[in-house]
Amino acid sequence: MFKRSKALLSVSADAKTTKGQAFGFLTGILYLAPANTTKWNTCSMAKTAQCDVACLYTAGRGAMNSVQSARIDKTVWFFTERNSFMQQLVVDIKKLIKKAHKQGLQPLVRLNGTSDIRWETVGFVDVDGAEYVNIFAAFPNTTFYDYTKDANRKDLPKNYDLTFSYSGVEGFQPFVEIAIAKGMRMAVVFRKEQDIPSMFRGIPVVSGDKSDVRHLDDDGVIVGLYAKGKAKLDATGFVV
Asked: How many structural domains comprise the chain?
């Protein structure tokens, strides 16, 4: 059994997304249990990239047992009762939109806060009796964004922005090369804030810690982040 949470989206619940309000956005994030925390693997590339150990799942409030339990419950809900889960997600997005507009802000939704699900393939979604192929089609005027380790995702909705997530692990390099060849924006985690360079692999680096509003960054740049949580001790190559 699992416990259904009253809300699936966390709205401006951390320092980084709160910074997005200065850019005119109110952010709602869905946090699920990452990789193989449950019997369902929500991050298909985690083992290849070896980012499962250093996952941001352990950063900030994510280190709390109660928070991790809630994320596991949401994951079980998503995989076992998809219809009611999606209905709740629709309710939450509507509330986010209403709250954002009331504050004079634009709503921004991140569905993979601690997962890497191909949401463009998750459907169908019922909104007020109308059926849509996926959640993006249900809210065409709302911007969605995510980070992903999957460089081969394609046919993305126009309102869904992806940033590729780098890992220096040797076995993951073919996927890094694919992302670079496609001109994808790429997030790279460095050991310390002072370690973030101005160029990485010949590509300009921009700060990724001023906010989480990634879709405002140019394509083809490196988004420099610094390690948090267990990532500070990572020795796999995921953290530069």
From this structure: 1
Residue 2 counted as domain residue:
no
The first and second tokens of residue 207, run together, are: 């700060």
DSSP designation for 26: E
Compute how many other C-beta atoms are within 10 angstroms of the C-beta atom of residue 69: 13
The sheet carrying 143-148 orders its strands as 9-11, 25-30, 106-110, 143-148, 160-165, 186-190, 222-226, 203-207, 199-200
Structural domain span for residue 80: 9-233
Q: Is residue 133 part of a domain?
A: yes
pLDDT tens readout for residues 139-194: 999 999 999 999 999 999 999 999 999 999 999 999 999 999 999 999 999 998 89
- Three-class secondary structure of residue 132 per DSSP: strand
